[in-house]
C-alpha cells in the first residue's frame, strides 16, 4: 500500500464492499508512502494515526486535486526548516516537554490539535515523523512554533520574534520571584574571571531551603562564585506569544562542605550537570535580593 498527501483512505465492509469510513491522508511517516498514515476522518474531522488493515484501501486523487495542491503549497512555502540529523523521536519528546511545562493534559492537547489522544501518546512515546499539518496543529495547541518542535531554534538566541503591539511590563515581588525560581532548571551565574572581568556561565541548579545550589568542578569558571557575592539569573521566553519573565537573585555564595548535606543534595538533584564529567563541588547561593520582571500582552 502506497499513498500521497491528499489521497483518501477508505475502509470498506468486507461483506458488502460498502465504504463505512473515509478520510484524507494529511501526514506520511515514510518517504515511499507506506503506512502508517495521519488521517483526518471526514465524519469527525479528527486526525488519528492509522495502520490500515485488510479492509482498507487508498483512493488516489488526481495530482492536480485541490487538496494535494494545498498541501504541497503549504510544504513548499512554509518557512519551516528541518534541522540536519533530526531524530523523529525528538519531535515527540519536545511535544511532551512543552505540554508538561504548560500544564496541559494529553487529552486536552489532543482535543486542541484535533487528533486522537492515542495518536498523541504514540507520538510522544515512539519515533514518529508527523506531517506538516499535524505539526502546525500541535504547535498551535501548545502555543509554540513548528520550528521549535523540530528543534530548529537551538542554534539561535531566543527572543527574535516581533514585540507585542501593546506590551505590559511590570516588576515582580519577592514571593512571585521565589515561585518562578523554585525547584530546578538552568540559570546563569555571573562571576569574576581570571582577569577580574565579569563572566556569565549557565549551570544546572536546584532550590533547596530557599538557597540556590549548583554543582561544578573545582577548577571551573563557575567555581569562582565561591566565597564571593554573585548574581544569578533565570528567565523564560515564549517565542510564539512574545512574552516572558526573568528573575535576578543576588547574594553571597559558599561551598557546601558538610558531607551529609552534600549527600542530601546529590540524592535530591533532579538532573546531573549537562556538561558531564566530574562535578562534585556544590555551591550554595543565599539570595539577599530577589527582583524580577514580566512582559505580557496588555490586559492580561
What is the structure about, briefly put?
It is built from 8 helices and 13 strands. By secondary structure, the chain is α+β, with helices and mostly antiparallel strands.
Provide a descriptive summary of the structure in words.
The chain is of the alpha+beta class. 25% of the residues lie in helices and 32% in strands. A 6-stranded antiparallel β-barrel has the order 7-8-9-12-11-10. Helix 2 crosses helix 4 (117-125) and helix 3 (106-112) crosses helix 4. Residues 63-86 have low confidence and may be disordered.
Task: Indicate the percent of residues in helices.
Answer: 25-40%
* Total strands: 13
- Which spans of ≥5 residues are poorly predicted at pLDDT below 50? 63-86
With strands numbered from the N-terminus, the spatial order across the biggest sheet is 7-8-9-12-11-10
Task: Give the termini distance in whole angstroms.
Answer: 51 Å
Query: Which percent band covers the strand fraction?
Result: 25-35%
Overall spatial form: elongated
Question: Topology, please?
Answer:
Elements lengths: L7 E5 L6 E10 L8 E5 L5 E4 L5 E4 L6 H12 L10 H14 L4 H7 L4 H9 L6 H11 L3 H5 L16 E6 L1 H8 L2 E9 L5 E11 L2 E6 L12 E10 L4 E13 L3 H10 L12 E5 L3 E9 L3
Antiparallel strand pairs: 1-2, 1-5, 2-3, 3-4, 6-13, 7-8, 7-10, 8-9, 9-12, 10-11, 11-12, 11-13
Helix pairs in contact: 2-4, 3-4
Amino acid at each position: 500500500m502506497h499513498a500521497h498527501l491528499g489521497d483518501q483512505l477508505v475502509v470498506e465492509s468486507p461483506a458488502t464492499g460498502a465504504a463505512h469510513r473515509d478520510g484524507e491522508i494529511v501526514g506520511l511517516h515514510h518517504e515511499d508512502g507506506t503506512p502508517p498514515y495521519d488521517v483526518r476522518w471526514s465524519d469527525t474531522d479528527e486526525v488519528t494515526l492509522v495502520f490500515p488493515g485488510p479492509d482498507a484501501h487508498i483512493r488516489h486523487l488526481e495530482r492536480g486535486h485541490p487538496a494535494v495542491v494545498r498541501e504541497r503549497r503549504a510544504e513548499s512555502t512554509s518557512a519551516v526548516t528541518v534541522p540536519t540529523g533530526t531524530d523523529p523521536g525528538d519531535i515527540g519528546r519536545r511535544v511532551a516537554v512543552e505540554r508538561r511545562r504548560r500544564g496541559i493534559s494529553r487529552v486536552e492537547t489532543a482535543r486542541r490539535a484535533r487528533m486522537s489522544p492515542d495518536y498523541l501518546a504514540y507520538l510522544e512515546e515512539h519515533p514518529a515523523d508527523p506531517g506538516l499539518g499535524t505539526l502546525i496543529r500541535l504547535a498551535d495547541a501548545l502555543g509554540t512554533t513548528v520550528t521549535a518542535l523540530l528543534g530548529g531554534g537551538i542554534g539561535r538566541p531566543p527572543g527574535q520574534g516581533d514585540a507585542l503591539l501593546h506590551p505590559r511590563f511590570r516588576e515582580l515581588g519577592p514571593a512571585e520571584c521565589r515561585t518562578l525560581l523554585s525547584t530546578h532548571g538552568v540559570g546563569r551565574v555571573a562571576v569574576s574571571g581570571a582577569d577580574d572581568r565579569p563572566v556569565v556561565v549557565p549551570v544546572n541548579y536546584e532550590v533547596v531551603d530557599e538557597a540556590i545550589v549548583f554543582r561544578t568542578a573545582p577548577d571551573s569558571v563557575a567555581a569562582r562564585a565561591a566565597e564571593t557575592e554573585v548574581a544569578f539569573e533565570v528567565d523564560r521566553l515564549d517565542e510564539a506569544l512574545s512574552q516572558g519573565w526573568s528573575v535576578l537573585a543576588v547574594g553571597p555564595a559558599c561551598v557546601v562542605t558538610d558531607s551529609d548535606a552534600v549527600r542530601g543534595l546529590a540524592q535530591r538533584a533532579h538532573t546531573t550537570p549537562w556538561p558531564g564529567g566530574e562535578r562534585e563541588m556544590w555551591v550554595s547561593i543565599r539570595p539577599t535580593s530577589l527582583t524580577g520582571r514580566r512582559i505580557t500582552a496588555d490586559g492580561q
